[in-house]
Amino acid sequence: MQLVPHLKTPFTLLFPVIFYLIAVCLLPSCNIINPSEQIPAYIQIDSPSVSIISSAQGTSSHRISDAWVYIDNSLQGVYEMPMTFPLLKEGTQEIVVVAGISQNGVAGTRIAYPFFYPDSFVVNLQPKETYHLKPVFSYKPGTLFLLNEDFESGNNFIKLSGDTTLVRASGSAVFEGDYCGYFKLDDSFVFGESKTAVTYPFTNNGSPVYLEMNYKCNQKFEVGVQANTTGSSIKYYNWNITPKGEWNKIYLNLTEVLQSIIPDDYNIIVRVQRDTSVATSEVFIDNIKLITLQ
Q1: In a shared domain, residues 113 and 157
Q2: Sorting pLDDT into bands at 50, 70 and 90, what band is 24?
Q3: Is residue 252 part of a domain?
Q4: Cα(188)–Cα(191) distance, integer angstroms
Q5: What pTM did the predictor assign?
């Protein structure tokens, strides 16, 4: 009987190599199938505060809702405060927190507020550790306070039309201090409209213009600008403020409206039409700040 020699196939030749690779990958040190994962540190950003350096800046009340977090000038994310989030960084890092707000009171329109300095923290990040940051923001030195009405020493608003106006009032409903602005409407007074007693020049240099305001109300009211040019004044009511049973704060962006009009100067205007679904309509307003940048 003639013996036929056994021929080695390509698979037979590769088998030792395949066996070796499988054996190596089953060892604990093999990272091909299951590579090691970086363990994050954790950042907890607590509720922020605002530092006021002079009485000209008015109240420290705020409604800063978001933290825009940067490391090495790179945005890591926008987080609603308070918030804890993981960070895949190690060692000494500078964490910069920028104040974020809901523009015009719209939750879906969140921006970094242009009038506050960021706060920064130098942190030595270690895996698994949690680092607590409490930002403190302050107005930039270039911020101009064109109007800062807290109603404590007077009232910068005068009657524009209607049968009532924004008056200075005291009592338990005041937000802070002793006085606030107040509209009251009932069967005798059904409409009120007020404007600032002085006008404010508009410089179309690209600087943002915002109105900050604390308020509470049991019916809606409107805020706008009266644009004044040679021989004419036109009202623009672009902001409807909805009822709030507790004191709230809103940031109104006047920039686009003013840039589209380019008035010589303008007034801030407020009006309220009685809502007959409530027996007595009440609108409380405080800490009205009209601000821009130099």
Answers
A1: no
A2: very low
A3: yes
A4: 9
A5: 0.86
Neighbour-count burial of 141, counting CB atoms closer than 10 A to its CB (0-12 exposed, 13-18 middle, 19+ buried):
exposed
The amino acid that residue 115 corresponds to is F
Long-range pairs, 252-255, Cβ under 8 A, ≥24 = 252/104, 252/105, 252/210, 252/211, 252/212, 252/213, 252/223, 253/103, 253/104, 253/208, 253/209, 253/210, 254/209, 254/210, 254/211, 254/225, 255/207, 255/208, 255/209, 255/210
Q: In sequence order, what DSSP letters do the residues of 219-234 get, joined into one string?
A: S-EEEEEEEEETTEEE
- Domain span at residue 56 reads 41-138
- How far does Cα 75 stand from its chain's mean position? 16
Token pair, residue 49, equals: 């505060």
Provide the domain count of the chain.
2
Reported as a single tens digit per residue, the pLDDT across 53-80 is: 999 999 999 999 999 999 999 999 999 9
Q: What is the CATH number of the domain that holds 223?
A: 2.60.120.260
